[in-house]
Amino acid sequence: MEYISTRGKVGSIGFIDAFMMGLANDGGLLIPKNIPVIPVETLQAWSKLSYTELVLELFSYFTNDEIPKEELKQLVEASYSTFRHPEVTPVTKLSDDLYLLELFHGPTFAFKDVALQFMGQFYSYVAKKKGVRINILGATSGDTGASAIEGVRGKDGIKICILHPHGKVSKVQELQMTTVQDDNVLNLSVDGNFDDCQRIIKELFADLEFKSANDLAAINSINFVRILAQIVYYFYAYFKVADNIGTTKVNFSVPTGNFGDIFAGYMAKRMGLPVGKLILATNENNILERFIKEGVYMPGDFRMTYSPSMDIQVASNFERYLYYVLGEDPELITKLMEQFKVEGEISIDGEALAKVQAEFAAHGVLGAECLATISSVKTDANYLLDPHSACGVAAAKACAAPNELTVSLATAHPAKFNEAIELCGIEQQYPEQIKALFDKEQRQTRIAGDKDAIAKAIEVFYKG
Ligand SMILES: N[C@@H](CCOP(=O)(O)O)C(=O)O
Predict the structure, then answer these.
(1) Which of 69, 93, 112, 128 is catalytic?
(2) Euclidean distance between CA atoms 42 and 246, whole angstroms
(3) For the whole model, what pTM was predicted?
(4) Sequence ranges of the domains in the chain
(5) Is the pLDDT of residue 464 over 90?
């Protein structure tokens, strides 16, 4: 498999080079040159595999044997040995036609661990194999940061700097990031919102001189390996709930901010997994819902919500989807992304919009509906959802037709978001690992949302 950029100016590169490049050097996003289609017989064989076996089979279509088989196996096994559930991402039944895919059994209690535990191992492997320094730079609205830090804390040859929006992540998310004392970790608490953090890191990655002088590497879902690792659990969940592998259709409802997780579902569908609807769940920051319903991609006013990880207006991975839905035309994507930068809007209509609407359904879940869903699922099924997962369930209920089988992604553990849970009048028990965070000392640097100030701070950290 070779990798190309959505903007057409990065030639075909290999798997490890794509991993190390992160954001494509032409400012676009890397994607596989072809999407492999998995035959039905292979799907049937895969349905009997354990989670780690499935990872290895699926990765083999993308990694070009650049990592010797036995070494990849060790990396994958080490990555998922940190999960608290033997199935890694188990599926649980909520009602006759609605299932939850529990993605929060990793070390930081959020779905991000599924990819970032692997990426931490993989960065460490590359650092040793190639003898290179790796300086990770990432932006987070709360979950990615903690998970990425956990994946590489204390690892030789790797430093990590994470930008989070000051005061706009949950208390537990903040503690998970800022109580880590390893010297290879820097947390910058940025005045602004997540979109500011993401814009700044993308500008720094796009400055190729700065990128190369500082050996920058990406852990956000601009890095295709994030998407790849997340594709696996769509297959795994499908195998758990489908009666007839290869013919039964299953919808997936996905709480979405940066469009990465649902884009992994889109890739799974393109790879031949019989996915029905991809249901996109947003909160009040509903740029993606408006795009799917009206074809207009234009940021609205930023809102703080009960589901802070989804408080995002400009979704990174949207460019990858746009590339596919508009006929894989890199010149058109370059033009549209330039236009978005200048005018702040992209619109599609006609056939393209019809195509989007055939692939996706969308539902924006406002605060009251989110809390009502947490309460009703707790009462009816004795299951405590976190506010992001509640958006997924609410969207599944709004968009799936009766008798359609739907898997809703439970993306985080409720203990990460007690602010919303206690508003529902529910008292929850924290897992020990989360309880312990409240007694630890925090380390973070408050900084203006200014690219130059941030560039200076990270340069000092990486060179120190
Ligand atoms: N929701 C994310 C935002 C960053 O998204 P990513 O897909 O690029 O990691 C978070 O919790 O940080």
Answers:
(1) 112
(2) 10
(3) 0.98
(4) 91-109+225-423
(5) no
